[in-house]
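Hi L.,

As promised, TLDc domain-containing protein:
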Amino acid sequence: MHINSRDVHFMSTTKADKSRDAIILVKLTKKLGLLRPRKVGADAREKLKNNALDTAFGEYLQWIFYLPFHHVIRVIDCFLVEGEKFLFRIALSLAIQCQKHKNGINLEKMREFCENIQISPQKLISVALKVTSLSRKGLPLHWCCIALTPPSPLSPADIAKAKSKAELKSENISFNESPLHVKCDVISAKDYIIGARIAPQHFHSQILNTWSLVDTLWEWLPERLVVREPEVVFCSEENGNSLQTFFTLCADFEPTILLIKTIGNEVFGAFCSTSWSKRLDLMSKSGQYFGTGETFLFQLLPTHAKYEWVGKAQKITSHSQQLFMSANHRSICVGSGGGRFGLFVDESLTRGQSDRCETFDNERLCSETNFDISVVEVIAFS
């Protein structure tokens, strides 16, 4: 479909495209008087990154694909005939409808509204067709009007300085900077383009209670799991604070996601590659670990970070760097080595520990080494 063609434009595929589309939608809301008037100046792109409404407009395609299946089919049918202008019409009509039912618009409100939309596909299309003053020829003019201002030319001194800095950095690359050794930076509110994966729509969790948390975690999962349906198989608020119940309800699932929420509202956990029932094969061998290098630790609140197995960045690993999972009737543990645990939870499921460990070379997952737990959840895949 020539999706990247400059002449035949179908869907936005880049971050720049999404920023451009957000500005177009802001301009259209002002032009058509659909929402509160907005001022879009030369620095509009920077403003977009700090505004919840503009962030939502930048992800307007997500709104559409969170609609029920029959709505999506009708929208795509019209899109293939009318072109991208119809997607803008749908986005504007969804914004109007959401504004009527909710106080303000942001990305999460739009997702929730679209997922539970109460109007029929025909009604939605009828509302969209009432949005006039849009033409296929007019959109390229909008695109040209908001093109980025070309940067000022660099001086020869600036070029030489940049070249010297790049050469110096290339000579000092270490294994710790390998892309396989992932330690994600904190994701700021400005980084609103999360990723290409669509997180599950019909999924309810006591801990992953915002779309941004689900989206972030789903970007880290192995590819094969993205197409499978997740389900919460254990929740301490519903099933009680019993490690034995934890083992019973999680026994038949592999892999699983262990989620911890502290009383301070910090959220972190581990992707556990092997079933917790594997501990039964090792009961006679005290202190034995199991699991694979697919296991990883992560943080979700207040910062986002993923800590993969150190063996992905180095060819030779010691025994202390292969301590993935361990469990007995007193505790569960993910990650160890050097006398410390990456993540440790006691039998009451109310207290835990986290520290840097040799298996994942992770930062401490919680602000304190010892923490009190509010909720424990386990997510499995059917």
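The chain has two domains: 15-145, 177-381.

Thanks again for sending the construct details.

K.
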